Amino acid sequence: MNERYPQAECALNFHNPFTLTIAVLLSAQTTDVAVNKVTPELFSRWPDPQAMAQARPVDIENVIRTIGFYHVKAKNCVACAQMLLADYGGEVPNTMDDLRRLPGVGRKTANIVLNNAFGIVEGIAVDTHVFRIAHKLRFSPASSDTPDKTERDLLALYPRELWGPINHQWVLFGREVCIARRPHCPECPLNDLCPSATA
Question: Which of 36, 140, 143, 194 has the smallest CB count inside 10 Å?
Answer without folding.
Answer: 143
